[in-house]
Amino acid sequence: MRWLRENLFSSWPSALATLAILWLAWRCLPPFLDWALVQAVWHAADPRACREAQGACWAFVAEKHRFILFGTYPFEQHWRPAAATLLLVGLWVLSALRAFWHWRRLAPLWLAGLALIAALMWGGVAGLPYVENERWGGLILTLVLATFGIAAAFPLSILLALGRRSGLPAVRWACVGYIELIRGVPLISLLFMASVMLPLFLPAGITMDKLLRAQLAMILFAAAYLAEVVRGGLQAVPRHQEETADALGLSWWNKTRLVILPQALRIAIPPLVNTFIGFFKDTSLVLIIGLFDLLSTIKVSLQDPAWSGHGVEAYLFVSAVYFAFCFAMSSYSQGLERGLAHGGAPRLARES
Amino acid sequence: MPRLRSALAQGALLAALALAIAFLYHNAAQNLEARRIASGFAFLWREAGFEIGESTFLAYSALDSYLRALLVGLANTFRVAAFGVVLAALLGTLIGLARLAPNWLLAKLAAAYVEIVRNVPLLVQLFFWYAVISDSLPAPAQALNPLPGVFLSNRGIFFPLPGDLPVLSGFNFAGGAALTPEFAALLIGLVTYTAGFIAEIVRAGILSVPRGQIEAAYSLGLVRRSAMRHVILPQALRMIVPPMTSQFLNLTKNSSLAVAIGYPDLVSIANTTINQTGQAIEGIAIIMAVYLTISLSISALMNWYNRRVALRGTAR
To answer: What's the predicted TM-score (pTM) here?
Structure first.
């Protein structure tokens, strides 16, 4: 009772807000639940059952789930992208555990994991039939684009961030120019560049497949954004650390590698995870240049005339999938931020 | 010696960049010739030959030039960005304040809103809103009429203007102000998505004002409203303005997703132009030049404003 009075009816405006919200919930929730659950069609072999029903047609998602998750990958081989998806998610989960935060553990883990995923997806070894990457699609494509994008963009971004703080004007201006150029234009223009303009820039006789070109554009894009996050971390390392390293007579390379970067990257971990979430969401844009990621496969499923008109259900479903991934990552990043704030290194940032 | 080394390193970098550009240029020249694609911007004056669904400030027909088509696209980008920025700032501020409200229900509702819109890709949200409008809203004859003069239908959203009410005639409404389904979906998507980010910025800005400042304001005898206006907001704004600007820029850049739902913005029309003329390099150069100009001028403007706010604060 007291909790109610303090949190919901503490003043006249507050009480009015509570009543307004309750009224809205009373008006909107029952019809929504009725549509989404009570009247919904969960299983239907025949799309007509959906058209006659008053509620949501989840049967559409059930019917098309294979295509939505795996795209045009050969049907009888679907266990391969399924296993690769689980493996990739497993790698991310393991990397999120602090016990694994060391190059000696992470590097072999990822190398082995990625080799296994490549073997599963392409095949051609151990009796698995070869599947060209034009046929990859669905959730695994989204995860692959995000994973390889970040893996390649991260080292590049460190170089860019260091270059932006370099004492050499030519290096500094090249990095600033690159970062500002990429950050100033929409991702879509880079993807168009990769899909229609890049082929014009390759020497005659050399072609690059579409997935690789899109991946390249995503890497160049992510590197510019990550570089700014890394630069934030570099700026937060107190000056005296650098001066001490200089006084010890460390070379620029050793100073950067052993003193500055470990502290800067530790500080930058939470914003790095946030940038990664944004990047994960941005992989959905490859739909526009015609790759079959998770969003694209569901959009293609909607074009089946027998099941047309269920866009709302389809996009709610795909939203839920993206939400599960992104919410998990953002909760993790928030937990990390709290954990790191209590544990040493980032405290240093406050001193400067 | 170190000076010589750094000069050499920089010279090597510049030479490598120049070499890479020369290599790409050479390839492009050869490829364009092999594919018989013209280069240069002469195509801008040729007849475009395609219709554009909606054009705001400029009259346009398929007989006009590509240049005019691109200008129509640019005007459409500005239109959705201008409405989007204003509405997103309003909605975002309201939700940010709601998250700090003493009312538990309101705060939790705002927090849930922020989590949902920030963790789903914008493109999915745009498709969702477009599907809601085109699949779920009724035909104009059975249009929803939530407020007098406002009609929601799968052909668009209709508002009354002073002395000009939308009236059903034939298969659609005439009169009043109309939002096409594409524009409405894009605007709703951009506003609700960006508002989630702005809400967090507003909340962080207000929380950044030290408690001592607020307590000092109360002990000076200021009431809640004047404390907010004279003490909290001026300090919070200084924290809020820079990230808010980058959200406005993001919204403008994100409006390029219009191409996916068929709203004729700059990117969408440049895309059509590229498909028709094959001049990909010029088309993409135009898109990039326009967005870079917008980005750089807004950040220059905001840096200037920011310096002014910061200076006034320290001068006092």
So the answer is: 0.88
